[in-house]
Amino acid sequence: MSGKAELVFIPGPGVGHLLSAVEMAKLLVGRDEGLSVTVLVMKLTDSSDMNSIADSVSASSSTGRIRFIELPRAELQNGSPSLVSFLNAVEAYKSHVRDVVRGLADSGSGSASPRLAGFVVDMFCAPMIDVANEFSVPSYLFFTSSATFLGAMLHLQALQDDCQQDIGALVDSEATVDYPGLANPLNIKLYMPSELRKKDISSLFLGLAKRFRETKGIVVNTFEELEQRAVEAVFDDKLPLLYPVGPILTLKGGSDDKLGSGDIVKWLDDQPPESVLFLCFGSMGSFREDQVRQIAHALERSVHRFLWSLRRPPPGGKFDVPQSYDDPNEVLPEGFLERTAGQGKVIGWAPQVEVLAHPAVGGFVSHCGWNSTLESIWFGVPVAAWPMYAEQHFNAYALVEELGVAVEIRMDYRKGDEVTVTAEEIERGIRRLMETEREDKKEKVRLMSEKSRRALMEGGSSHSNLGRFIKDVYNNIP
User: Where are the domains positioned within the chain?
Assistant: First the structure.
């Protein structure tokens, strides 16, 4: 392809969104030498640890054709990590993005310089489409969750806007919705984000979905073989072009490197193959003390080997990364560490990719964030689903009910609720994963793992879709 093209990436606030965007940028510049990417990094002053991780990612990923520009920091309203505060922060960033892009457009006016070919915006940054329009360049959506969830958002948005359906009331009822992307009717009260019950929040959330329709294309971190039904449902003449290009994973490097993973890997090296249950709940995952004790009782009674990432919730509901305990004994049952010394290991932050890749790991108790879901599939590790917030319940439903690669621990758990999942429930899920349903889940996830790797190879579905996307980007240059 002739000429050089530059894309402006605008990831949403949050480590997971930034990591996925960076890996997408690497994929693009690695595929085509004429492409360059500028990543605009949003930081929230209320989140010092998340910001330090963002700094580490930016420093380790900068290359000649990927550069990072840190935008001035914005405050979350009242320190609250709500959708309203996120969208208000994004609105506040518009002027900063406008200034940066104006500089990029001016510097790219020379014949040898890359030409601005478009914005690639995170789902929470859809308002930045307005800025792209000001510069007369197209926008693409980078959707960091599943194609099935994307389709469900668009479906509910159409019900609201075209059929005048009250989505808040629907989510708060026991109604099921027939959505073409799913084989089974969906109980949206259980599996869609609970925030949708609030009319103002559902209007904002589905307002984002409406803006997705304004983009030139939607890049999704998935692969066709994983979500064939959903991908076919979203391929529609009335919708932007869909580009499933995943799985996009952070498989090496990054912020885990300096966190002392050597002891963890050494411990895993001493365990039998596929014998260890790994418990990890994402970059924001933590539990109250009473819930921690129930997990501990379940692990001890199950007698299965375990590696447990246990972290302290941020104080006062602050939006920040949970920290490791100085002494886990302060929240664990008395004598737990001594009694389970030969059975398991309790750690703080976990090098998740390194752990899932290890042959000793045979099961994964997960919150079902989409990045974690793709990692478990890539490494062929079956999951026990324990979703907590956002779209994780929807992901868990897809894994358990649609794909059959996971078992359920508790599908209706909501972080912040006063409900405590009992040791009996947790132990039951562990035994299903590691004993009674082990072979079935292991075989299903193994087959999907093979498909995920083939999708990225030359001639694979995601490899071909990435080529289509790059061709479309170059078509934006006059």
Answer: 5-189+198-251+456-474, 261-452
Euclidean distance between CA atoms 83 and 36, whole angstroms: 31
User: Do residues 362 and 322 lie in contact, with contact meaning Cβ atoms separated by under 8 Å?
Assistant: no
Other CB atoms within 10 A of residue 92 CB: 14
H or E element that contains 438? helix 438-456
Tokens representing 107?
């510097």
Q: What is the pLDDT of residue 76?
A: 60
Task: For the domain covering 261-452, report its CATH number.
Answer: 3.40.50.2000
- Identity at 114, one-letter amino acid code: P
Retrieve residue 110's tokens.
């020379």
State which CATH number among 3.40.470.10, 3.50.50.60, 3.30.930.10, 3.40.50.2000 fits the domain covering 5-189+198-251+456-474: 3.40.50.2000
Dump pLDDT digits (tens) for 309-363: 999 887 765 656 777 888 999 999 999 999 999 999 999 989 999 999 999 999 9
CB 219 within 8 A of CB 245: yes
DSSP 3-state assignment of 424?
Answer: helix
Q: Per the confidence metrics, is the pTM higher than 0.90?
A: yes
What's the rounded mean pLDDT across residues 251-266? 69
For 359, the token pair is 């042959």
Whole-angstrom Cα distance, residue 413 to residue 389?
8
Residue with tokens 């693409």: 140
